[in-house]
Amino acid sequence: MDSTTNLPVAVIGAGPVGLAAAAHLLERGLEPLVLEAGDTVGAAMREWGHIRVFSTWQYNLDAAAVRLLERSGWEAPRPTALPYGAQIVGDYLEPLAATPELSGRIRTGSRVVAVTRQGMDKGRGLGREQAPFLLQIRHAGGDVTEVLARAVIDTSGTWTTPAPLGSSGLPAPGEVEARAAGLVTGPLPDVSGDGFAGRRTLVIGSGHSAANMVLDLARLARANPGTEVLWAIRAATPARAYGGGDADQLPARGQLGARLRAAVDTGAVRLLTGFQTSRLESTDGGTVTVHAADGRSVAVDRIIPATGFRPDLAILSELRLDLDPAVDAPKALGPLIDPDFHSCGTVPAHGAGILAQPEKDFYLAGMKSYGRAPTFLMATGYEQVRSVAAALAGDAAAADAVELELPETGVCSTNIPDTTDGAGESCCAAPEPVLVGFPTGLTHGRSGIS
To answer: Could you tell me where the DSSP H helices lie in 48-125?
Structure first.
């Protein structure tokens, strides 16, 4: 018998996908051990609990988790309602973690700082697959302990490793100092709190996070005279940020882009296009000047970074991984989600086969599996861990099955439309194969934007 048979499957992270993984493992007769760095489940989501997601409850609930909850008398929220992050935590994750099946299998305040094989570094291969995984854990009090596991599912996400503001992938000169001085906020702050009303704030980024921040600030400005909102994007046009509008099958996501366009068109938000941050200069007066590569500069009171996130791969340095060189996702998944080249069409539903690594029985799942790509939806992560749990249980047929349907955005054009006459060549005039998944933006991603 394999020496790892009686060991648990370690799940890193007690967010929605991590707890879903635990539920699926239990249904498969496997023992999960969930390790959460925060003091509570859903710790990262709590930090953006004031944000309403653009997918309805039906896309934010995992089937195995729901089955577990219903045994405890839980009632599901209205499936067509749009929850806030705090509601997902309070109405779903907390009750799930409190179920008799999971409550004793979750350790909070337990940050995984390294994953390896017991008695082996990355260079040793003989007998590697038979050796258990060893996880080093730093606890809230500072103590470090180790646990062994038969398999590892890393669903720790990317929230704690936001991308820098510098356009070359590095922190811009002066950025570290500006962050230390509190002039650069964390991602997705609650702008209704102190520090934003009556001040000048610059949002940098072009994704949904940036859109939410810009619109929250515009709303604040309407109620607080003297509040100024600036929005800087690297692209020459905001068309990609505006998205699919009425063509989006997630109405809230389409409405987000439409409201963003209106805020810019009415002058409520000042848009800076083609803005590549090259340097930050903090002043003694508590302001910061942001310099662009083309010589432009803007002085503001606060900067909200919405430039994306990166996976923390340092804890996995002793594992044998095969990652896409562009987006740091599993190599087979990378070409499907690379925002430079893939958008028009769909990301096929995928599971253990796509996520598998040379390090047997180790899987990246959830947001972390998408690496630097910004197009992840929660339902995708649920399908991933359903498949992974089946694979770990030896059910190859179930692991390979596709059990996911996601809404499409309808954004599918080869050229950015000319807003003066609506011109734009459609990439989808000819029939295309129907895939299960969702489009992730414009054709050829960023490469289609000048």
So the answer is: 63-70, 85-88, 94-97, 100-103
Residue 284: pLDDT band by 50, 70, 90 thresholds?
A: confident
The pLDDT assigned to 27 comes to 98
**Amino acid identity of 381?**
G
Are the C-beta atoms of 158 and 368 separated by less than 8 Å?
Answer: yes
- CA-to-CA dists, residue 121 to 46, 190, 193, 364, 411, angstroms: 36, 43, 47, 20, 46
Which tokens hold the place of 43? 């710790």
Please state, in angstroms and rounded to a whole number, the distance separating the CA atoms of residues 204 and 272: 9
What is the C-alpha to C-alpha distance for residues 277 and 171, in angstroms, rounded to an integer? 10
Residue 159: closest CA among 325, 317, 45: 45
Give whole-number Cα distances, 309 to 162, 191, 260, 266, 366, in Å.
4, 20, 22, 31, 13
Task: Tell me the DSSP string of 194-258.
Answer: TTSTTSEEEEE--SHHHHHHHHHHHHHHHHSTT-EEEEE-SSS-SHHHHTTGGG-SSHHHHHHHH
Sign of CA dihedral 83, 86, 88, 92: negative
Bridge partners of 281, per DSSP, are 289
* The token pair that represents 24 in the structure block: 């699926």
CA distances for 268 relative to 74, 101, 271, angstroms: 43, 50, 10
CB 158 within 8 A of CB 367: yes
Residue 120 bridge partners (DSSP): 117
**Other CB atoms within 10 Å distance of the CB of residue 142:** 6
If phi > 0 it is left, if psi is from -120 to 50 it is alpha, else beta; for residue 82 that is beta
- Percent pLDDT > 70 in the chain is 84
Which pTM value belongs to this model? Answer: 0.86
DSSP string, 184-203: B--SS--TTSTTSTTSEEEE
Other CB atoms within 10 Å distance of the CB of residue 267: 8
- CA dist 216 and 269 (Å) reads 11
**For residues 166 and 194, what is the distance between their CA atoms, to the nearest angstrom?**
27
Sheet with 277-282: strands ordered across = 277-282, 288-292, 297-300
Instruction: Dump pLDDT digits (tens) for 149-166.
Output: 999 999 999 999 999 999
- Give the gyration radius of the chain's Cα atoms: 22
